[in-house]
Every structure is written in structure tokens, then in C-alpha cells.
Amino acid sequence: MSVPAAFDYHPATSVDEAIALLQQYGDDAKLLAGGHSLLPTMKLRLAQPAHLIDLGKISGLSYIRDDGDAVAVGAMTRYVDIERSDLIKQYFALLPEGVDLIGDQQVRNMGTIGGSIAHSDPAADTPGMVLALKADIVAKGPGGVRTIKADDFFMDLMQTALKPDEIITEIRFPKPPAHTGSAYTKLANRASHYAVVGCAAVLTFDGGECKAASVVITGASVKPTRASAVEAGLVGKTGQGGSEGGIGGVLHRIEGAFAGENKLDDDAIADAASHAADGMELVSDIHGSKEYRGQMAAVMARRAITSAIERTS
Amino acid sequence: MADYKSLRAEQAQKRAEGKLMGIGLSSYIEACGIGPKGSFPVGLYESARVRVETAGHVMVYTGSSPHGQGEETTFSQLVADEFGIPMENIMIMHGDTDSTPEGRGTYGSRTTAVGGTALYTAVQRLKEKMKQIAAHLLEANVSDITLEDGKFSVAGAPQKSITFGEVAMAANFSNTLHPSIEPGLETTAFWEPEANTFPFGTHVCALEIDKDTGAAEITRYVAVDDCGRQLNPMLVEGQVHGGLAQGIGQALIEGVVYGEDGQLLTATLTDYAMPIASELPSFETASTVTLTPVNPLGVKGVGEAGTIGSTPAVANAVCDALGVAHVDMPYTPEKLWKVIHQK
After folding, report:
1. Which of B107, B151, B316, B335 has its CA 20 to 30 A from that of B114?
2. Architecture of domain B46-191
């Protein structure tokens, strides 16, 4: 079956109108953003909404703005615009890197950041990156506007903290402190290019010591999952031979700080990364067994962390 | 062309670095140009009806059924070369069983070898008839008539000539044709080969397997194939490219998977992986030319060559990289990872 069930189409002209339509039609309605996750499920009749509310005609929902201590991205911003944004590249290297790995160019021309995180496909890339960057998600409903922290947003398999009549309007990415590097890498499903396992890593260094680490695994579980055990294994670790003590250690660290190198040694990274799947409910399908995904989580984490550290400066 | 020695040296170097590089070769020979008289329960001939129209345009109705192999171009070239007329004046019709003669279809690397020969046969018949008409009009002996650059002339007296178009007009319109000549210029030819043709080739595949993930990536692919006479080298290369993509896809990523309950799990292209251009290496292709004596064109067929050579070349490269004798296809990352980590 490659034809959706019949539906009524409503092009909303404002967010308030879209919210009103959501309230009116309730469970019979779905929001349409980029459509490249929704329409295929409708063609397979896995979803059969009687009413489609198109957000694409609403002006003012697609933007990338420097907003002081954060970069604000409108929910309807297409992946291709994120790929091309110098502002985003300046602060969040992992976003254009990860977005470039999504689907194919046709998908990236239409797909939106808001649509992706609202849909929260477990194998998608954007939810993981948004979580790793600890973004704030701004949503509007009949009761007004509220902000949901990324760590509170992704609840379960394709379930988010959004209420049925709420619409994401903006995603705010707090600007990172100096000496922060980020990276996204994934092992892709060769058919769909969805993540079999992906890892988004954001690390901050100061004087050779890892001050903060945000590491998220995508594709391996029912939702993007923070790898807290990995983070704990990185924070407080020092580069340049790690915990070498005495005058030698001090000299090395000073040397390293002047040289601008924040490199943790490979063993330290591998050690931390080995905990990538700790406590995670791993999924299994024809593209990867539980065992494989668990092992790949560690591999992807190691690679993303290494890459992120190289980008701290 | 592959510089095999350098590849082995590179492999030694990579192995010293702990990397998994493999080199695979395959040499093949295939029985094509399906099929020889008596080799099958049905006759595997091909057919062509050719009509030269009043203004000198040519309609070809072929029993072959190309679906991307490019015979619209190759057959036009053949007719254009034989008659000495522009390709624009030729129309190739296929696939409409209401208008085309009975044929056996396009597969088995047979369309140009067998269908092309049926076309060639029909064209020669019409050429002969046109020579007879020209001889009559030029008051010469038919054995003295030559056809060159779209003109029929008398050997030794080139000023005595008449164009292809004028002969076509005469054949279709004239009321003073020689009584032995039936009006019109239309014939249908059926041609059945006496034997198969035997294209052959050798392929070399170099690839690297990511030790941590099991993902295989082809770094070089070299293919040298011999399909006999190449009527259109660009189409030949295109066929090879397509065959390589198909064979590599089969080896590395394609697979139909059923669940234990019989449910088809790879039911859409989100789960069934197909090879795409951006995920394949730049192919290095070359050819040798060994004509077949089986048909007057010397053509052996090339539709399958790329596929035949590539799947085993990739398989051999994977086994070489992993130091094992056999791995079941497709060589998915998890499968290779298991081989690497469970040895």
C-alpha cells in the first residue's frame, strides 16, 4: 500500500491557528513539518490522521539567531539551513557535521529540526545532538509558552514531553564556554542511513583538564540516551599523560596548556567510552543485534570524543 | 593497470599498522548471446522489421526489449552506418507487442548480439533490393553498384549516382519499377545463433575493513572486460558500471531477510539496502576486443559482465582481508565484525 488514507489538509497561517486546529481535531490530527518521517508512515498506513495541519506556511518559524547567551533556532528551520549556517558552525561544530549525515540531500532540504525532535525516532540524529548540546526547547500551547530542558524532553520510544496540543516554536542552544569542542559520528544503516549507533559528544577543557562532558548515544536504544558513565569517566581527567604526578607532571601540563593541547590519551578515552552502553535498554533488529550495538556504542563514543577534544582550542 | 605489486606492498604496510586490507581477483567467462539453436525448449531467435519510407526515413521494429541498455542508440548507429544516413532519420520501436514482431526479449547479454544481428540481416536485405532499384535507374549492372555515404553509384563512374532518399522514393512511389521488383522497402528478419558468444574479463578489488565496526569500504576497483566489437563504447562502459554496482551491492549490502515467523523484514528501501553512486568508488575500466565469429557484428554482449566479475572479486577481497576461506554474503558490518572478534 503506497497511498495514504484520505485526509483533510489545513495550512495554518499562525502558531495560534495551528494550536486551535490541534485542539479542534485532537487525536485525528497530525502536524506536518518537513514531512519526510510522517508521509512515509502515512503511505504505509501506519499513521492515518484524518487531518493534516501544515506548519510550512507559517512565517517567522524558520531562523537562526544570535540571541546573546544562546543561539536561537526556529522550529521550522530546515536541515540544509543548519548545514550552511556560519553562526552554528562557529559554536556547535557537531550540528552541521551530524546534520550532513541525515538521510540524503532531498531529506535535508525539507526536514526540520523541530519536526525531528517532536517525532523522536530512536534512530534519528537530531534528538541526540539537541540532547548533547543541552538545548532548551520552547513550546507553545493553549496555556501559553513554556521551556522544556532537553534532558526532560525525550521520554520514551517516540514519546516526548510535549502535550498533545503543544507546538515547538524554538530550540535554544546555550553558547558553550571557551575551549569547548563537539562532534557527531555514527554507524549508519546502509539502506536508510538512520543511525544503527551514533554518538554526540561535547567536551570542555581548561588548562588540560576536562571540565565538562556531555555524551549522548543515538540509535542503540528506544530514545537518545545520555551516557552518564562515560561523562563521569571524562570529567576531571587531565591531558598530557593524565595523572602523572610530581614536577614532571606539572611541567607536562604547563607545556600542554601553552601548546594548546587538551588531548587526553587514547587509553583514557577508550576507558571512559567503554561505558557507553551502561544501563541502556539496547534494541535489536536486522541492522544490529543488542551485542553489536552495545559494542558499537563504545566505538562511536571513542571516535566522537576524540574528535570533539581535537576541536577544543 | 591495477599495479598488483603495489597493492600487495600497500597491504603489507597496512597490515603492519594493524589495518585490514584485502585484495580480491576474479576472472570469468560467460556464455552469452542467448541462445544457440536447440539449446533451449523454445527457439531463442530475435527479430527485426525494417521499413524504408518514402522520404528515406527508416522505421525499425525490434523484437528485442531494451530497458535502459541503450539499443535505441546502438541500433540507430547500426542502421545509419549501413545505409549512410543520419541517425536522426531512424526510429527504433520496441516493447509494443502490437507493432513489433515476435521476439524473445532482453536478458542474457543477447540484445545487440542476437537482436542486432537480426536487424543487420534485415538491413542487408533492403540494401540488396535498393541496389537493384538503383541499378535499374542508373542502367547499370547490380554488381557494379556501391553504396557509400548515402549514395548509390556505379563503380568506376561516380558521377552516375542516386541518393538513398531518391531510391527510397522510387521504391515506394514509382510506377516504372522493373517488373521483377516488388514495390515498397520493408522486410522482417528472424535470426537464430548457432552458438553462444563468450565474453570474458578480469577484475581486481581492493578494500579495507574497519576493525572496530566491521564496515567494508572498497578503495579501488579495476575491471577489464572483453565484449567483442563495441558499437558504442560509452554505452559499454555504462553497462559495466551498472553491473559493477549491482554485483558489489549483492556482495556488500543487499539481502532479503525474513523473520522466524515468515514475515518479510526488508519490505521497503529503508531496510533493503541498494547500492548508490555516492557510496561506490570511482571505477577504473578498460577493455580488450576479441571478436566473436558467431555473428557478423563480432559482438558478444556486455549486459552481465560487470555483475559476473564483481561479486566474486569483492568476496575474495573480504576473505583476503580477514584471512578466512569463506564468509556468507552480504558482508554487513556486524557479520564481518563477528568474524574479526570471534576468531
Report:
1. B151
2. 2-Layer Sandwich (3.30)
Q: Mark yes or no for CB contact B271/A192 under 8 Å.
A: yes
Check: CATH 3.30.365.10 for B4-32+197-341? yes
Those residues with Cβ within 8 angstroms of residue B57's Cβ, 6 or more apart along the chain or in another chain: B89, B90, B91
Q: What is the pLDDT along chain B (343 residues), one digit of tens a residue?
A: 999 999 999 999 999 999 999 999 999 999 999 999 888 899 999 999 999 999 999 999 999 999 999 999 999 999 999 999 999 999 999 999 999 999 999 999 999 999 999 999 999 999 999 999 999 999 999 999 999 999 999 998 888 999 999 999 999 999 889 999 999 999 999 999 999 999 999 999 999 999 999 999 999 999 999 999 999 999 999 999 999 999 999 999 999 999 999 999 999 998 999 999 989 999 999 999 999 999 999 999 999 999 999 999 999 999 999 999 999 999 999 999 999 998 5
Give yes or no for A289 touching B (CB within 8 A): yes
- Cell matching residue B5: 605489486
**Closest-CA residue in chain B for A293?**
B334
Residues in chain B with CB shorter than 8 Å from the CB of A285 are 265
Query: Could B272 and A299 be called an inter-chain contact, meaning their C-beta atoms sit closer than 8 Å?
Result: no
Contacting A with CB below 8 Å, chain B residues are 212-213, 215, 252-253, 257, 265-266, 268-274, 279, 332-334, 337-338
Q: Tell which phi-psi region holds residue A312, choosing left (phi > 0), alpha (psi between -120 and 50) or beta.
A: beta
Indicate if B46-191 has the same CATH topology as B4-32+197-341: yes
Can you list the domains of chain A with their CATH numbers?
8-54 (3.30.43.10), 64-174 (3.30.465.10), 180-310 (3.30.390.50)
Domain ranges of chain B: 4-32+197-341, 46-191
Instruction: Supply A294's cell numbers.
Output: 552495545
- All three cell numbers of B62, joined, read 525490434
- Confirm or reject contact between A296 and chain B (CB < 8 A): yes
